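User: Please run a holo structure prediction.
Assistant: Happy to. Please share the sequence and the ligand.
User: Here you go; the ligand is pyridoxal-5'-phosphate.
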Amino acid sequence: MTSSFFPPQRTLMGPGPSDVSPRVLGAVSRPTIGHLDPLFVQLMDEIKGLLQYAFQTENELTIPVSAPGSAGMEACFVNLVSPGDTVIVCQNGVFGGRMKENVERCGGIAVMVEDAWGEPVSVDKTRAAFAEHPEATLLAFVHAETSTGVKSDAAALCALAKENNALSIVDTVTSLAGIELKVDAWGADAVYSGTQKCLSCIPGISPVTFSPAAVERIQNREHKVQSWFLDMQLVMGYWGANTKRAYHHTAPVNDLYALHESLVMLQEEGLENAHARHQRNHEALVAGLEAMGLSMAVAAEHRLPQLNAVNIPEGVDDAAVRTALLQDFNLEIGAGLGALAGKTWRIGLMGYASSPRNVVTCLTALEAVLSRQGATINVGAALPAAKALLTD
Ligand SMILES: *Cc1c(COP(=O)(O)O)cnc(C)c1O
């Protein structure tokens, strides 16, 4: 007989999922009600309002897609790209590559703007791509590249799209609630995110928001959206205002309790306070790592506070360190991805995981494991350096 599964209590400091708040875990286990129950419909309306706050938008079409961040990505592309469309795609890590794949699967032509992994998207190169491809109807880029820990200038890129009469598709899976994100003020058109990064929520849901211009483009499509499940015109029959809330698919009722709770928590804390908390814990972690003798992989001005890429010291066994952290300290950190595999660790401080306690846990565990491996580090220096920057 197979028995019940009881996972250990890990500390999740990788690229996601990140630690889930106990309040959110409590919410998931509340009684399931029908997905067309009038009380559930009320909850859906509250979620839309709370998501508008998180995204800083008044977009009517602001909803959670019932699937992970990758589905939110796909929802943006399948609804906005028609066969033959030219899309400028910026790539400076893993996720830009997936955007290209999405464009091509929709029958579009992807014009790539490539930047080195570890660098932000170049606004100048993107401007040059528009000059070369005036037929481009969309610009797609990642605001916070989780594969490298780099932030790009989303405001400038969205403005550039507008100047060129193109709509923007922005990946904010890791940025939402972790760093400033102003959908309306920046003029972003199709924006998707995820629940398991800086929202302190369980994985599996993708908040999305579409500007009125994006909605108009969707309504005027000549070709049917290739995906039935992600076709926003159909989804709106269930999530839209002033509709009968007709059955489209069964909403993940309990997951949406979780999302609602995490958004209530975000509203209670306030967006600006949440950003400040991510920044403060990031600075303390970096101070500790540098005092230990490690170096950061990304230049200070481009770093994401919620995803810290650290260079793996010469001669250290990457996998052995991560295994020891997990087995001996119940601590998960992320490996490098793609071009950075084996070269960096990715230490997440996302959402509920962005706490002084986790900074201290990570520095303590890493110091113990690295010393045991015989790495040359400054023992005893990390915690005082970090604590000096932790105010609570
Ligand atoms: C995690 C992530 C995704 C994918 O989200 P899933 O929920 O894993 O599908 C997309 N883009 C970025 C930048 C991410 O960090």
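Residues 16, 68-70, 73, 95, 142, 146, 171, 173-174, 194, 203 surround pyridoxal-5'-phosphate (CB under 6 Å).
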